[in-house]
């Protein structure tokens, strides 16, 4: 016979109240009942395993790759040598044809930041790769050679399945390490990462200690040396420190991370686009001018009409500062950019907008707020099937900790929000369907804490939402 103690009955009642609360009492979507203990995030110390310097004389470290052209047939390989420039050559070969070793020669850069001097930062673009092919590549000299591999994407086309991981505001704490580990072990197997900005958080250290840029790059090498991460700049990339004599914004970032911005006729590495498989990815900069007549504005105005949804059905935008955010952090920081660009996003039927900045998770309904004209009073977001879903995923686990103070009541347009660390996966199946899932760090690797099927806005613009009132 089973007997319940009064305390366990109390607990069950308590739990059901919590559950009912979350389902019945909120005005908008769902605020998760999962309340994470507000712990302090702690940076991994400099002698942590994840920061280890590879053995060997002047061995290449901080190896990372990103897409190197507009269509996915080139890769930018980057690495740092600590003591001397060493070899600028990448030796590479395809798995299909390992007899033919090819070489590409890159360039070396260094920079100073206050009293920090960088190592020798190498960037080398490998071009004319075959699609859908595994390549091995080697960097370094004689006895400190290091070998890695990557797989090129399939040819650009409308029904090509492809799986993107999504991370933001990662930093280098123990929680950051858990986020990356969960991404790596997710059975959905991300093939490339869409990174929504705020990489190392070096600027939280005295004098923006750029050693923390080096440690960060060593930490994430285990993923980004093998699959491209698509970079967005966040506020922690600005590194504007006139008090240190550092007056040129984005100095560490632009030296360390090269992106293929010229391939999309951009004039700066902060806004650009790439095609990858069935996706067209537009990266925007919250911290570069975006008002009318600015370079970014002109570029985006010309860029959006170029997207051919018969070729790349999925239109994805990355930006750092969210436009729709119902946390009491960075509240309305994205508003001015929203006012400038949201009408274009609706006109061009963007599928999904990914942002970071707020250290928590939130997913919106399909909504827009484009009807407002100052005088007409129509200033509330309304349901709009031509509008993107907005995801805030600044929950990588950086040193600044979790954002857990939410505006109440939850706005109607907010479909799901939760203050937990995690990552997401955007798993494109074909031109009409993509499986999206968000995975909180506290669950097992395969658990989807939030998920939905995305229906493509061009090919299948059917309402996916279940609960808009
Ligand atoms: C830079 O200056 C700070 C103090 O201003 C000092 O603690 C640090 O050791 C210096 N670093 C180098 C590389 O000289
Ligand atoms: C980081 O995560 C990896 C993989 O789970 C683990 O091997 C390593 O020990 C972790 N390091 C720290 C400092 O937590
Ligand atoms: C759009 O892409 C399709 C498929 O690749 C192609 O047939 C068509 O010509 C393209 N349209 C334009 C306007 O370039
Ligand atoms: C949450 O944010 C609001 C608005 O900024 C503030 O008034 C309130 O004190 C905050 N609550 C907590 C618990 O920090
Ligand atoms: C697209 O993918 C979805 C989900 O896997 C599937 O249900 C649908 O049948 C596919 N469409 C086509 C035309 O294959
Ligand atoms: Fe940020």
From TrEMBL:
Recorded catalytic activity of this chain's protein: a phosphate monoester + H2O = an alcohol + phosphate
Family: Belongs to the metallophosphoesterase superfamily. Purple acid phosphatase family.
Broadest EC class assigned to this enzyme: hydrolase
Sequence ranges assigned to domain Purple acid phosphatase C-terminal in this UniProt record: 387-446
Keywords, alphabetical: Glycoprotein, Hydrolase, Iron, Metal-binding, Signal, Zinc
InterPro entries (UniProt xref): Calcineurin-like_PHP, Metallo-depent_PP-like, MPP_PAP, PAPs-like, PAPs_C, PAPs_N, Purple_acid_Pase-like_N
Source organism: Hibiscus trionum
Protein name as it appears in the record: Purple acid phosphatase
Signal peptide residue numbers: 1-25
Cofactor(s) for this UniProt protein: Fe cation; Zn(2+)
All residue ranges annotated as the Purple acid phosphatase N-terminal domain in the record: 60-152
Coiled-coil parts of chain: none
A Pfam family reported for this protein in Swiss-Prot or TrEMBL: Metallophos_C
Domain Calcineurin-like phosphoesterase: 163-361
EC numbers: 3.1.3.2
GO terms, molecular function: acid phosphatase activity; metal ion binding
